[in-house]
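Suppose you are handed only two things: the residues of a chain and a line of SMILES describing zinc ion. What would the bound structure be? This form records exactly that question and the answer produced for it, so the two can be stored side by side and reused later without any lookup.

QUESTION INPUTS
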Amino acid sequence: MALLVNLRHLEEDSRQETGELTGEELGLTDIDELIHTPLPLQYDLEVSLLENALLAQGSLEMTLKCECSRCLKPFDLHISEEAWACHLPLEGEEAATVENDCVDLTPHIREHILLELPQRPVCGDDCKGWKKPAKMSSPSKQAEATEEAPSPWAALDKLKLD
Ligand SMILES: [Zn+2]
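ANSWER OUTPUT
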């Protein structure tokens, strides 16, 4: 389900639109291999019809599951916008697409989330990155092995053992 706003319903008065959009509905599932969207975005918007424009304003909130691009640690990235506003003209060159009296706000919310995303997710400003093992006299092969990212299979193996 997309977030469709029916313009006819707004002729009398503004409306409160509250609900959720999944990462799939927002088209955010394949944005970055280090950023995942298992949790839906929550929106609480007041939508009103202005002269020749649609105005949506309110809050957007979403928690993304990320992996640090430096140390590979998983962490949550909270995106919380209390005063999001979206002004969509209904006439002229920039006019929003209206289909069956409805305007889809989903792509505009997607745009906002994309703007909030880091270029490369990092777990914290003080992240030192993946810890390099102390210098060893043994051939570098061993060092390479310890530096490898923890694989999901290793985690699975552990589960099996338990
Ligand atoms: Zn990190």
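WHAT STANDS OUT: The chain has a mean pLDDT of 88. DSSP finds three helices and eight strands in the chain.
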